[in-house]
Amino acid sequence: MKKNLSIASLLIILIPSIAIVLTDLIIGDYDLFKFINQRIANSILDVACIHASPVLFSIFYLFTLVRLYVSHRTIAISSSAISFITGPLCYLIGSIVKLLVKRPRPFNVLPGVRVIGPWETGSFSFPSTTTMLAFGFAIPILLVFRNHVDGIVLSFLSYFIGFSVIYTGFHFPADVVAGILISLAIALCTTRLHRPIVGFLERRKTDST
């Protein structure tokens, strides 16, 4: 059962990512970016991508962390701890990759790019560290605390973040999907901390009683 849940959790991340990759290959990275950034642009999406996506993710993530911690379940506390480690780690590794790849941002290479919102944090585009931060927080909860809806909702909100950084003009689709897949690889490594953390928490619980 746990193995089936693990595979299902991975598919929640992999299936949309593969769909994005295939669409990007068929349409082309620049053309897909222009479609998202310009052709579907409207005032509702402007507000949603500039304001709603980061606010919704932040509020739900903090709510999830608190709820997992106060549950006093070792598996829940472990997943929240790994999540809190993985998010910043993904951002750090993504920032290093950016310095190595040095891909310019869309508005530096394409004419007519709509640039809105506060998403830019540097000169380079690949991978999207904002997307990596969101998925770095979300994936461990999805993979470790497998039987809970929080990881699914956080993954959905992470995809919303990824869409937002394309829509607002700061990243190409390839930047986002690369960020997702790199974050997944990192999270698969950090989730190996689950057993030692649970063991440590169980020992502390036993000692306190």
Plain-language structure description:
- By secondary structure, this protein is mainly alpha-helical.
- The protein has one domain (2-208).
- 78% of the residues lie in helices and 0% in strands.
- It has nine helices and no strands.
- The chain has helices at residues 2-27, 29-39, 43-70, 74-101, 106-109, 129-144, 150-167, 173-190, 194-208.
- α4 packs across α8 (173-190), α4 (74-101) packs antiparallel against α9 and α6 packs antiparallel against α7.
- The model is unreliable at 1-5 (pLDDT under 50).
- Shape, please? elongated
Number of strands: 0
Distance between the termini: 32 Å
**What's the overall average pLDDT, rounded?**
88
Descriptors:
209 residues; mainly alpha; 9 helices
Summary, kept brief:
The protein is mainly alpha-helical. It has helices at residues 2-27, 29-39, 43-70, 74-101, 106-109, 129-144, 150-167, 173-190, 194-208.
Topology (elements, then pairings):
Elements: H1 2-27, H2 29-39, H3 43-70, H4 74-101, H5 106-109, H6 129-144, H7 150-167, H8 173-190, H9 194-208
